[in-house]
From TrEMBL:
InterPro entries: Cyclin-like_sf (IPR036915), Cyclin_N (IPR006671). This is Cyclin N-terminal domain containing 1. Coiled coil: none annotated. GO terms for cellular component: site of double-strand break. CDD domains: CYCLIN_CNTD1. One of its GO terms (biological process) is reciprocal meiotic recombination. PANTHER family: CYCLIN N-TERMINAL DOMAIN-CONTAINING PROTEIN 1. Residues 51-176 form the Cyclin N-terminal domain. Transmembrane segments: none annotated.
Length: 309
């Protein structure tokens, strides 16, 4: 296998250097965590993975020269924190004198308050993710304050620390959330072990681009997949709510991204790789193929938009 590091040439963790037993443990652990997550989904799952928000996080990570893994991790932290934070705020009894005779007024106050803090909350998630990465420099408070000032947010170090602590407490200090890029990396490693002829190093680079595309076009891609699955151009609310187990399935996303990359890079091996990915994850070949073909359709459309005549 290629002697390729997961995220940068300076990583100590490289493709082909992990023992099969350790690799198996990684995969079993990821699969268990993915299933646990799917069994405890909130109705708000995916709400904070909007294209503009994801792009904003990616741009912060790029501007600060952080490992791409930090951006994906930050998005997962943000999603978990915001869902819990808003749920806690909205289920707290309305304070006395909060104009209870005006329906919705208390909720409006909460959302207005969150709106003012939101940019700092997003940055705190990126900062926390950078501290958890073994392969990325940590964003210290001086750098953080300077960066936020450069984008129009003047905050003190104390305010920054309070925001970070709020996120930590909201997440109950549980920060080790698996992210899509981790799934792609581990699945690629397993694929390379099972299929030594697979060009893992080249696939990895391409998978980065595919995963970023899917993350930014998430709504459109999953909406197309949903309509294709239920065979309806107007899925019902119940169908959309049920489909959240698909949109939040990191294992499906991981194999789908790899399948797209293989289709682009080495089409002749596509069916063989899809078969192997299905064997590794127990996800059906049809599910992998459907995800990959929908994604490929959106990639083609984005590069060759259809114009009306």
């Amino acid at each position: 296998m290629a002697n390729r590091s997961f995220c940068s040439p300076n990583h100590s963790f490289k493709f082909g250097e992990v023992s099969f037993d350790l690799l198996t443990d990684f995969l079993v652990n990821l699969n268990k965590r993915n299933k646990d997550n799917l069994n405890h989904l909130s109705k708000c799952s995916g709400t904070f993975k909007d294209k503009r928000l994801v792009e904003y996080v990616f741009l912060i990570a790029k501007e600060l020269r952080l490992d791409p893994l930090v951006g994906y991790h930050a998005i997962e932290l943000l999603q978990r924190f915001m869902v819990k934070h808003l749920t806690d705020l909205l289920t707290t009894p309305t304070p006395r004198g909060a104009a209870a005779d005006q329906p919705g007024s208390y909720e409006d106050v909460i959302f207005d308050k969150i709106e003012g803090k939101f940019p700092l909350i997003v940055f705190s998630c990126v900062q926390l993710a950078s501290k958890l990465s073994l392969h990325s420099h940590i964003i210290d408070n001086n750098t953080a304050v300077q960066f936020l000032h450069s984008v129009g947010h003047s905050v003190s170090k104390q305010t920054l620390m309070k925001s970070e602590l709020m996120v930590l407490k909201g997440l109950e200090f549980r920060l080790n959330a698996p992210n899509p890029l981790t799934y792609v990396e581990i699945l690629l490693e397993v694929l390379g072990h099972n299929e030594p002829s697979s060009p893992v190093d080249r696939l990895y680079d391409l998978c980065h681009h595919v995963l970023q595309f899917v993350s930014l076009q998430r709504t459109a891609i999953y909406d197309t997949l949903l309509r294709s699955t239920v065979r309806s151009v107007s899925p019902s609310r119940e169908q959309r709510e049920t489909f959240v187990t698909v949109t939040e399935d990191c294992m499906l996303l991981g194999v789908g991204v790899i399948a797209v990359a293989v289709f682009i890079l080495r089409f002749k091996k596509w069916e063989q790789v899809v078969e192997e990915l299905s064997h590794i994850t127990a996800i059906s070949r049809k599910s992998i193929s459907d995800f990959a073909l929908v994604t490929l359709t959106h990639i083609v459309r984005s590069n060759f938009p259809v114009t009306s005549t």
